[in-house]
Amino acid sequence: MLEIDFIDEINGDGQIAEQLIQKLLSFAADAEGLEDGTELSVTFLDDDAIKQVNRDYRGKDQPTDVISFALEEEGEGEAAIIGADDMPRHLGDLLISVETAQRQAVDYGHSVERELGFLALHGFLHLLGYDHMTENDEKKMFGRQDEILKSFGLER
Fold first, then answer.
1. Can you give the pTM of this predicted structure?
2. Which of 12, 58, 66, 83 has the CA that lies 20 to 30 A from 114?
3. Residue 83 scores a pLDDT above 60
């Protein structure tokens, strides 16, 4: 089973979706063939906190819905982790703005829980290396995202 460390920085508002996110991301992990014991963290933030992270790490001075920090992604000049074969696989960290999710849920006409699940899956796929920088990559990522949501039963 996928191990998720939930961190709620906003007084419990994120907890409404923890059970859904655990089930959805475990389902997605199985669909992607990840080994049991794979780990990641999901942190629920408000818009001010995610705006600061977005500004500091992405150079965008605005709130966003989800940010992924992939631990397995090696940047230029970074060395691979030595001895990682003996440790559980840790994919990285997801940061989700509950305030943005609440607004988007209203805009899209579905529940906040569904929006938080969608954002968690989107970020999870980024942790696995999916991206949407090119049209081809976008088709692949969004196609996989839709496939998982449909199979799981979390469509709009």
1. 0.89
2. 58
3. no
